[in-house]
Specification:
The chain has a single domain, classed as Hypothetical protein af1432, CATH 1.10.3210.10. 75% of the residues lie in helices and 0% in strands. It has 9 helices and no strands. The chain is globular.
Length: 162
């Protein structure tokens, strides 16, 4: 059973009027969904990827409250427990919750990317962050060279920014 719509509704309620955060996760979700589908990843992994894309930055809210910072390192620590509670409440399987929490805990770590779901989540997040952070072309080229591995992700990066 696909619960993505329910999860998106929970996240919109969680971020309450924070248009920037809501739009961010929706854009990452859209890119992750499209890249995963175009790369023909298995359906169970696609479900995990899309779930992770919706909640990937769930730790940002508490990180800003607790540390006055949205730094990725704080999000990676603070996010998984919040996501776990939300996913359990919505009835997600434990195996899905574990992988989603792993992805949240590592999505700002770009070394030793394990799994196509992790790779695509990182690429989707970069596709959105490049725009939101107004990155320079030379920085984008470095990111493409060091981070991007999927054909679809590279295609989107080129078509959007290069």
């Amino acid at each position: 059973m696909n619960k993505t719509g329910e999860l998106i509704s929970e996240m919109i309620a969680y971020y309450q009027k924070d248009k920037k955060r809501i739009n961010h996760f929706l854009k990452v979700y859209g890119f992750a969904k499209a890249i995963g589908e175009n790369e023909n990843i298995p359906s169970d992994m696609q479900f995990i990827l899309q779930t992770a894309a919706v909640v990937h930055d769930i730790g940002i809210k508490i990180s800003e409250e607790k540390y006055n910072s949205s730094a990725g390192e704080h999000q990676q620590v603070e996010g998984p427990p919040i996501a776990r509670a939300m996913l359990q409440k919505l009835g997600y399987d434990e195996a899905v919750i574990q992988r989603v929490c792993f992805l949240i805990a590592h999505h700002h770590t770009y070394k030793n990317i394990e799994g196509i779901d992790y790779q695509i989540l990182v690429e989707a997040d970069f596709l959105v962050n490049i725009f939101e952070d107004n990155m320079e072309e030379r920085e984008i080229k470095k990111i493409k060279e060091k981070i991007f591995t999927t054909n679809t992700g590279k295609q989107y990066l080129d078509q959007l920014y290069l």
